[in-house]
């Protein structure tokens, strides 16, 4: 029988051999997109050329997307140093200085993890660095630090301690009580208490039950689930196994969107490894508990993030939601009681079991416990994946962790919760990030997408963007969502094109209210939020589009006016040559002018002008 | 099952547990509009016209798929409910042809009726409308998908009643359509049996009986209840008649027989009624056998002639020289009488039936 | 059709038969089977969907309903290389639309169109989840981040 403790002990020292330098490349989707594979090849080539005895490995995303590709260099007995923006050209210098000479390249280093060694001077230590200082990494604690495809690495870092504890020493009811005591709420958006949800499935009559992991992360601007699945697939699998034991299920599905091929690949690898060691499948750890886990790849439908649509999709049907009740806990997959949670929720479970519900409940606010993973994107300096305690303010996230707005422009809004969420303005920046505060302000926690917008973002355009998305993703079953999102989009498009009327705002508001009240599923009920929140906080921008025919952020093309400043224009003619519609005329070496009737507002002229003579109003 | 007491529009109502709010209201004379609901089909909850306000519930739930609960307080006509229903009708009409003047459904169209009831003109939204070609390549059904409101009743009737699954939803969102595979027509699908039950459940003018087009307005039709003559099942019909002509046949909802559903013959085979080839009087052969000459006779004469000839044959050649072939188009009772007559009166077991082989 | 074409058809038919065999009796197998069939054929031809419907004893109309519901499925042949441009929020605020324009111009095709030589098909996708590197696109399985219109020609060259 598998003895986890013995295994864990035997791994000590073997995972990170103390006698060789190691070079580790962040190879999540974003790391690869930024050129991680080329960097890895360069490392191998350079190490080979110099005949160095080094280990070259891959890991997942440490969360500093802005700095990808990220490479970790660790010398025996020395801190692990993380370098950002590594290019193949920088590799020889990096190896020569850090590996050969033993001196880190400080100007390229992002952060170091000391792990009981003496830290280097002049490099921020992870726990106190600006980016990580406010963070509390639980779910993301292994991300970027271990090999996500190695079960050894998982077990060596405390993996499967929780499952062992549950199977050997706890009843299913005790597991549920522990989760209830932690105060964990669903991380997929709605924030339903997880322990309570589990108890519903536990209590539902039936021999056959399922657990399902919702990994259909479809919110544009969100990649929490992808990062966790790519970076620590075993945690999710262990969390699901514990849930299966607690609710009385022996079979489970992970429904992962097809746009995440790497996450699916790593999950498959992880499931096979766990099965091989008897940590999945029949008679787990010799306790007689069985749990079989399958992966289902989505096929491209945002609405499948809605739980009843997701179940329909697993069953091989159109992903159209159905009315609840009956809830999946009573009648789920193939009519059987089914527990559905999302990736981050399951990923929290092993940590709660290992450290106790009270430990978890000590983090966060009164009603929102623990930590939350967010994806910081948009017009900020440091885009990335972060994990923060609930209750932290938006200001801390955006200005302390993310380093403020790109090019030091003016903050305008932060969009939280994706197509179901809302846009919050500057005076909401001191809002604590928890389920109830965000909902009260007109946004939602959602799954954790946070897109920051600056003065150059048009809020009407943002509302139109989201409606365009929900309109395209509506399943078409219920009237308000199918027809209502279409008409909302048409009105918003009209406003962006300068054809709006003031009464459109009332129609838009009424339509949004009705869709919110009457749509069948969560997608429809929340899709008016981007419209309602921008109408509420940024009504003046709508009015500027309608009354003044002006887009204050200079985004809406139809409302732009390009002009040439005769003082600055040298008459070089570059703009006229660039203009695709022949709207620019003028004598050589004389100031040119733009004919507004012919101008298609593409901006090509402005890009070509070397003298800053063309302005956009 | 236990009873549940709830309040709808201030009225205390007691119904069996498991009843929907919609059913409870309708059973008690309280009006709630629906487009996608049909109690003979599985619940759908898609049109959202039946939304109501229920204390303690978020938003406006659809009453057709919400079960009653003890002590529930329901309002079916609050300002929020009315606003929502009007908006829903506006939205449906925004994507619906404005041809009520000549639409065959006019006068029996649920969308038209509700629009009138709620005073909705359908001009609040101007935008894209569907522009699907009219499907009229088969002799029975005309499909105008521009009028389709995607209630899905036709799909459910095809799957649950006819169990033929010819049509389903395809595509999604605003572009969702009801169609056979590959966006083929019913005829091209080669799967449709043209039972026409989809036409019967369509609440709008998207599906219509081809032969009925331009044959009479809804309010000009006399509805006659009768029994189908095509076979012995005895499906109940509601035949619409104008100027003594059968204009349209629909199933009459007699739960003991056909529950309102019909097959292609019963629904679309009524043209024989006005056929010049139809024999409406008894005929007695006037010329030689095979010559095809007959003369009209009275019923008395014809019956007397038949009885006499049967008797003569029986006397001359014996009972076994007579045989009777009866028809599936007769009723059970008629078929019973025929065999009884043959056995008891003629004295032979030579009885057969067109449906035997 | 020449012999090699026939051979190709046979290989594909055999691969599909293997897929159907492998999923035999598995509940809810329609979507994974359609996914694998599309892998084999590059798209979902009518006869293939019809065959799958027959094998799974699922109405053809339902198979078609599923195939047209999910954006991953394609009912028409596509190019050798699939370009998918992210239309997510982060890409939108960081200039994703200009990217689409640039590629569209470089290839002379619009969204959901295929170049005349069959080399590229241009598609958009709701979000690729690489928002930290916005704007991004994917060509086949490869993701490209921090794109600008200027970087496009060199990337397309590689395919």
Can you give a write-up of this model?
The complex is a heterotrimer of chains A (617), B (357) and C (159). With 617 residues, chain A is α/β, with parallel strands linked by helices. Helices cover 38% and strands 15% of the residues of chain A. In chain A, β11 and β12 (384-389) form a beta hairpin. In chain A, α17 (459-473) runs antiparallel to α18. Chain A is globular and about 90 Å long. The N and C termini of chain A lie far apart (74 Å). The model of chain A has no long low-confidence stretch (mean pLDDT 93). By secondary structure, chain B is an alpha+beta fold. Chain B is built from nine helices and 15 strands. In chain B, the strands form six sheets. In chain B, strands 2-1-4-3 form a four-stranded mixed sheet, with helices on one face. Chain B starts with a strand and ends with a strand. The mean pLDDT of chain B is 95. In chain C, α1 (3-22) packs antiparallel against α2, α2 (30-41) runs antiparallel to α3 (46-56) and α3 crosses α4 (60-69). Chain C has seven helices and five strands. The mean pLDDT of chain C is 90. In chain C, a hairpin with a 5-residue loop joins β2 and β3 (120-125). A five-stranded mixed sheet of chain C has the order 2-3-1-4-5, with helices on one face. With 159 residues, chain C is an alpha+beta fold. The interface between A and C is large, with 57 and 42 residues.
Architecture blueprint of SSEs:
The complex is a heterotrimer of chains A (617), B (357) and C (159).
Chain A (H helix, E strand, L loop, with lengths): L3 H8 L10 E5 L2 H5 L2 H15 L4 E5 L11 E4 L5 E4 L7 H10 L8 E5 L37 H6 L4 H9 L2 H11 L11 H10 L6 E6 L8 H8 L1 H15 L3 E6 L4 H16 L4 E4 L4 E9 L9 H8 L23 E5 H13 L1 H5 L9 E8 L5 E6 L4 H8 L9 E6 L5 E4 L9 H6 L8 E6 L4 H15 L5 H18 L5 H17 L3 H5 L2 H9 L1 H9 L14 E3 L9 H5 L5 E2 L7 E2 L9 H5 L5 E3 L1
Helix pairs in contact in A: 6-10, 6-13, 7-8, 7-10, 9-11, 10-13, 17-18, 17-21, 18-19, 19-21
Chain B lengths: L2 E6 L2 E6 L4 H7 L25 E2 L18 E3 L3 H16 L15 H9 L22 E3 L9 H9 L6 E3 L6 E3 L6 H4 L7 H5 L5 E3 L12 E6 L8 E7 L2 E7 L12 H5 L14 E3 L8 E3 L2 H19 L6 E3 L5 H15 L4 E3 L4
Helix pairs in contact in B: 2-3
Chain C lengths: L2 H20 L7 H12 L4 H11 L3 H10 L11 E6 L2 H5 L2 H12 L5 E2 L5 E6 L11 E3 L2 E3 L7 H6 L2
Parallel strand pairs in C: 1-3
Antiparallel strand pairs in C: 1-4, 2-3, 4-5
Helix pairs in contact in C: 1-2, 2-3, 3-4
């Amino acid at each position: 029988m598998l003895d986890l403790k013995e295994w864990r002990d035997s791994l000590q020292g073997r995972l990170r051999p103390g006698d060789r330098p190691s070079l580790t490349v962040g190879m999540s989707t974003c790391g690869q997109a930024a050129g991680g594979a080329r960097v890895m090849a360069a490392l191998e080539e350079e190490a080979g050329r110099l005949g160095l005895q080094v280990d070259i490995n891959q890991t997942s995303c440490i969360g500093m997307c802005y700095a990808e590709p990220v490479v970790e260099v660790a010398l025996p007995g020395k801190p692990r140093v993380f370098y950002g923006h590594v290019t193949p050209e920088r590799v020889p210098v990096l190896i020569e200085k850090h590996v050969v000479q033993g001196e880190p390249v400080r100007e390229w280093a992002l952060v170091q993890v000391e792990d009981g060694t003496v830290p280097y001077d002049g490099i921020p230590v992870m726990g106190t660095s600006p980016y990580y200082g406010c963070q509390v990494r639980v779910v993301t604690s292994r991300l970027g630090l271990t090999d996500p495809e190695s079960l050894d690495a998982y077990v060596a870092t405390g993996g499967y301690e929780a499952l062992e504890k549950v199977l050997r020493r706890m009843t299913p009811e005790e597991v549920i009580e522990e989760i209830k005591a932690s105060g964990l709420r669903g991380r997929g958006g709605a924030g339903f208490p997880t322990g309570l949800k589990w108890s519903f499935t536990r209590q539902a009559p039936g021999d056959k039950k399922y657990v399902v992991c919702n990994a259909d992360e479809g919110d544009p601007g969100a990649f929490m689930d992808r990062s966790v699945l790519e970076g620590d697939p075993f945690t999710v699998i262990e969390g699901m196994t514990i849930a299966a034991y607690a609710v009385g299920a022996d079979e489970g599905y992970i429904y992962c969107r097809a746009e995440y091929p790497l996450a699916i690949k790593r999950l498959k690898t992880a499931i096979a490894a766990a099965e091989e060691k008897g940590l999945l499948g029949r008679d787990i750890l010799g306790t007689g508990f069985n749990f079989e886990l399958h992966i289902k790849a989505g096929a491209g439908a945002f609405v499948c993030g809605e739980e009843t649509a997701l179940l329909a999709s697993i069953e091989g049907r159109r992903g159209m939601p159905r009315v609840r009740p009956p809830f999946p806990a009573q009648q789920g997959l193939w009519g059987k009681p089914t527990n559905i949670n999302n990736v981050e929720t399951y990923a929290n479970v092993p940590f709660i079991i290992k450290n106790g519900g009270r430990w978890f409940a000590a983090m966060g606010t009164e009603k929102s416990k623990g930590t939350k993973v967010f994806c910081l994107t948009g017009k900020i300096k440091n885009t990335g994946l972060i994990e923060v305690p609930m209750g932290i303010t938006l200001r801390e996230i955006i200005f302390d962790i993310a380093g403020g707005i790109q090019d030091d422009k003016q903050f305008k809004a932060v969009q939280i919760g994706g197509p179901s969420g809302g846009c919050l303005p500057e005076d909401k920046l001191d809002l604590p990030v928890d389920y109830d505060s965000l909902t009260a302000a007109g946004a939602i926690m959602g799954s954790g997408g946070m897109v920051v917008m600056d003065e150059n973002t048009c809020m009407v355009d943002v509302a139109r963007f989201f409606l365009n998305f929900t309109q395209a993703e509506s399943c078409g079953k219920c009237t308000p969502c199918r027809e209502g999102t279409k008409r909302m989009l048409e009105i918003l498009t009209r406003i962006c094109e300068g054809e709006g009327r003031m009464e459109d705002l009332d129609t838009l508001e009424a339509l949004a209210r009705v869709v919110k009240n009457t749509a069948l599923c969560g997608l429809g009920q929340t899709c008016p939020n981007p419209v309602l929140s921008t109408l509420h906080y940024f009504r003046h921008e709508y009015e500027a589009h309608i009354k003044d025919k002006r887009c204050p952020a200079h985004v809406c093309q139809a409302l732009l006016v390009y002009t040439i400043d005769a003082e600055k224009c040298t008459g070089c003619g570059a703009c006229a040559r660039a203009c695709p519609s022949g709207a620019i005329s003028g004598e050589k070496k004389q100031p040119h002018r733009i004919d507004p009737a012919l101008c298609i507002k593409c901006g090509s002229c402005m890009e070509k002008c070397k003298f800053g003579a063309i302005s956009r109003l | 099952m236990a009873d549940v007491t709830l309040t709808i529009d201030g009225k205390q109502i007691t119904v069996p547990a498991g009843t929907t709010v919609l059913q409870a209201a309708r059973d008690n004379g309280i009006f709630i509009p629906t487009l996608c609901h049909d109690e003979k089909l599985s619940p759908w909850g898609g049109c959202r016209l039946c939304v109501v306000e229920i204390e303690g519930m978020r938003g406006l739930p659809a009453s057709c798929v919400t079960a009653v609960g003890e002590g529930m307080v329901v309002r079916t006509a609050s300002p929020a409910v009315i606003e929502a229903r009007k908006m829903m009708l506006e939205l449906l009409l925004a994507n619906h042809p404005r041809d009520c003047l000549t639409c065959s459904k006019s006068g029996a169209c649920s969308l038209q009726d509700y629009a009138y009831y709620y005073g909705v003109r359908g001009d609040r939204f101007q935008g894209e409308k569907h522009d699907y070609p009219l499907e009229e390549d088969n002799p029975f059904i005309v499909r105008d998908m521009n009028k389709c409101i995607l209630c899905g009743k036709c799909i459910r009737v095809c799957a649950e009643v006819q169990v033929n699954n010819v049509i389903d939803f395809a595509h999604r969102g605003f572009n969702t359509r009801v169609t056979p595979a590959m966006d083929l027509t019913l005829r091209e699908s080669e799967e449709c049996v043209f039972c026409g039950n989809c036409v019967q459940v369509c609440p709008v003018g998207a599906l219509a009986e081809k032969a009925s087009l331009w044959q009479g307005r809804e309010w000009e039709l006399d509805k006659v209840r009768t029994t189908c003559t095509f076979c012995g099942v005895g499906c109940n019909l509601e035949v619409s008649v104008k100027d003594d002509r059968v204009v349209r046949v629909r199933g009459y909802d007699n739960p003991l027989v056909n529950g309102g559903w019909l097959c292609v013959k019963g629904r679309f085979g009524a043209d024989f009624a006005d056929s010049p080839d139809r024999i409406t009087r008894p005929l007695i052969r006037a010329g030689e056998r095979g010559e095809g000459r007959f003369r009209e006779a009275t019923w008395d004469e014809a019956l007397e002639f038949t009885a006499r000839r049967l008797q003569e044959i029986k006397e001359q050649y014996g009972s076994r020289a007579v045989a009777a072939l009866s028809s599936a188009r007769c009723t059970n009772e008629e078929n019973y009488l025929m065999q009884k007559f043959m056995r008891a009166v003629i004295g032979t077991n030579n009885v057969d039936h067109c449906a035997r082989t | 059709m020449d012999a090699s074409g026939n051979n190709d058809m046979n290989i594909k038919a055999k691969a599909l038969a293997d897929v159907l065999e492998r999923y035999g009796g598995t509940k809810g197998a329609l979507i994974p089977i359609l996914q694998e069939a599309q892998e084999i054929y590059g798209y979902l031809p009518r006869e293939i969907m019809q065959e799958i419907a027959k094998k799974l004893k699922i109405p053809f109309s339902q198979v078609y309903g599923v195939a047209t519901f999910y954006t991953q499925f394609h009912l028409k042949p596509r190019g050798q290389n699939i370009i998918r441009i992210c239309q997510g929020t982060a890409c939108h605020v960081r200039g994703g639309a200009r990217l689409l324009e640039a590629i569209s111009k470089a290839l002379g095709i619009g969204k959901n169109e295929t170049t005349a030589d069959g080399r590229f098909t241009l598609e958009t996708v709701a979000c690729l989840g690489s928002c930290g590197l916005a704007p991004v696109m994917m060509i086949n399985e490869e993701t490209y981040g921090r794109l600008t219109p200027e970087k496009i020609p060199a990337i397309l060259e590689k395919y």
